[in-house]
Amino acid sequence: MKKYLTLGALLFLISCTPTAKDEADKQDQEPKLTIDSDSIKRRFGECKADSSIYCTQVNFTYPVFDGSSVALSLNEVFEKEALQVYLKDSINSNLASHADDFVADYKSIKERFDKAFGWQSSLNSQVVRSDSNLLVIETIVEVYTGGAHGIYEVYYLNLAADSGKALRLKDVFTPGYDSYLNKLIKSKIGDANDVSLEGTYYNSNFGLLEDGVKFYYNAYEIAPYASGPTEILISYQDLDGILKNEYK
């Protein structure tokens, strides 16, 4: 025996079926992601002037995400990256405790060497690209704890705007990208006498910027300190075929 939907039941089902407009309205009601900034500052010693050689300073400035459901993940991923990569395998669970320990370590040195020069730790992070698919954070790190010179390094972190996930090479490039990308990077670096690379020329420090993908090599990574960093910018046109469309 066949069963037929009554007109009333049919109308009920139709009314309960989500439409494109319903989905759009739902997205409009989702809290919008906001980007603010926060800072952490610490001072110890003779700090009447920022240039004092006996002043130990910590200056961290970084983006803080809020509003949408993915904000917490974005903040956690950035802080983890900052502690484990930018600040060289910090044992701390957050930036504030890292700043406190940095000053505490200096104090222990000063107790042994009263005229120890001050230490400096600076982290300046900012969002350099923000769109519906992608957030890109550029971070400049400067650290001095004694010696002939300090450390100056730049890092890029690419984040998926919908999940907060950190995007690595395998996430943004199509399978089998290795050979072609390697050839591109090698051609950009050329035959510079002060660059030492064998085999793999691309690295994992890259930023998906508005005008192309930048691969950044900090001092000592492929060249002597005196040569400074190496920057390679590859246009999206040159990456056609190996870069996923949503990240162009």
Give your account of this protein's structure.
The N terminus is likely disordered. This protein starts with 6 loop residues before the first helix and ends in a 14-residue tail after the last strand. It has 6 helices and 8 strands. Strands 1-2-3-4-5 form a 5-stranded mixed sheet, with helices on one face. It has a 3-stranded antiparallel sheet with strand order 6-7-8, with helices on one face. The longest helix has 18 residues. The protein has 248 residues and is an alpha+beta fold.
Strand sequence of the main sheet, in spatial order? 1-2-3-4-5
CA(first)-CA(last) distance: 57 Å
Number of strands: 8
Classify the beta-strand content into a percent band: 25-35%
Number of helices: 6
List the helices and strands and how they pair.
Blueprint: H1 7-16, H2 20-29, E1 34-45, E2 55-66, H3 71-86, H4 95-112, E3 120-130, E4 134-144, E5 151-160, H5 169-172, H6 178-189, E6 206-209, E7 212-217, E8 230-234
Parallel strand pairs: 2-3
Antiparallel strand pairs: 1-2, 3-4, 4-5, 6-7, 7-8
What's a concise summary of this model?
The protein is of the alpha+beta class and 248 residues long.
Output the keywords.
248 residues, alpha+beta, five-stranded mixed beta sheet, three-stranded antiparallel beta sheet, 29% strand, flat
